[in-house]
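We emphasize that the prediction below concerns an isolated chain of 426 residues; any contacts that depend on oligomerization or on bound cofactors are therefore not represented. The input was used exactly as deposited, without trimming of termini.
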Amino acid sequence: MSTPVLHETGSKPLDSAWVREQFPSLKLQVDRKPAAFLDGPAGTQVPKQVMDAIQNYLLTANANTCGAFETSRRNDAIIDSSRAAMADFFHCNKDEVIFGQNMTTLTFALARAIARELKPGDEIVVTTLDHDANVAPWRALEEKGVVIRQVDIREADCTLDLDDLKKKITSKTKLVAVGYASNAVGTINPVTEITKLAHAAGAAMFIDAVHYAPHGPIDVRALDCDFLACSPYKFFGPHMGTLYGKREHLLRFNPYKVRPAPDTLPDRWETGTQVQELIAGIGAAVDYIAELGRRCDPTAKDRRSALLAAYRSTRQHEMALLSQLITGLLAIPGLKFFGITDPKQFEQRCSTVSIRLPNHTPTETAKFLGDRGIFTWDGNYYALNLAERLGVQSTGGFLRIGLVHYNTHEEVDRLLAALRDLAVTS
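Result of the prediction step, given as a C-alpha cell string:
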C-alpha cells in the first residue's frame, strides 16, 4: 500500500457518536426509518461547520477578488485560507493548489494544456480500472494523433495487471494516468511504484485521487507524482474539484485562459470567477477532518499531523465495517462479488464494494434498499471500461455499497438483512 502512515499507532478509536453529531443530514428519515447513507462514493454528507462556512461567506465576504474594499479583502483571505488547508491536505505548497468546478473539468483543462506539447505518435497510458474522468480527457487527445494504451486488470480480484502496465510504459510514453483507488470496486493501486515506473521512462504521472481521498491521507511529496486531482464533495466538502501540480509543471504548461488573467500561480489555471462560497467550504471540510484527528490524537501539533491522526482512526473504523460487510455478503447464496475479499489483502482496498444479486438487476436492488431507507448506487459509476471488461455494462452494471467513517455497524446489519430478504425472492 502507498500510505504506510496508516499503520502507525497513537490515535484513539473513532468516537462514532461525536462524528455523527457533526452531520445534520444523518438525521433524515425515510418512511419513519433512519436513512443509512451508503452512497458515499458518489458524494459524502457534509458536517455542520462546512455549512456554516458557506453561509458565513455569503453573509460577510460575498465579493469578487482583489478589490479595494472590505468584503473583497475578506474574500481573498478566505480563499487563501482554504488554499492553505488544501496544501496541508496534499502536503504541498499553496501555489501548487488549483481550485476548479470538479475533477473532470480540471483534468480536461490540464489535458488540453499538456496536448500543446504532444505530437502524433506520443503515448499516454490509462487503465481499465479507472473512472472515465481519468480516461476520456486523455482519449480526447487521439484527435492530435496521440496513442492511448490501456492497462488490463486481473479479473479474479479486480486489481491492476502490473505486468501489463510495465509492458505498456515505453520510451514513447509521455504521461501515465492512474487512479489512487477504484470508485467501483475499492482497489487501492500501488501508485508510488507506478510513479517510479513512469518517471524511469521519462513520463509524467497523473493520479486521480477522488475516491481515495475520504479513506486515506495523500502525500504528493512522498508519492512524487506530477499531478493529482480530487473532489472535496467526496471528502465531506462542497461540490468542487481540486488539483495539485508540481510548480515547475504548472509554470511550464500553458493553460487556455482569458488574456487579462494573471500568468502567475495559481491564477493562470483558475479560469474565470470561482465558486468562492464553496471554496470557503473546502477549507472547512479539511478543518473538520483535522478536528477529528485532534480528538483522536490530542498530541497532534499541526493541521497536517491532525489529518494523519484522523485517517489512522477512520481507516481502522472503516476496515471493521468492511470486514463485517464482506463476511455477510459472501454468505448470501448466489451473490456475485467483484474485487478483493481476502482480509489478508485489505491493505490493497478501501471500504467500497460492488455486487450483483441473482434474478435482480442492480436498479431493482437499489430501489428495494432505497424504499427501506438504505441508500446505495447502481450502474457503472462512470467506471465504463471496468463494467465492459467484467461483462456487466449491458445488464445494468453493479450495485455499489460505500462505507465512510460516519457509517455504523448497525447500518451494515440493516443492509445485510435487507439483501438477504431480497435474495430469497424471485
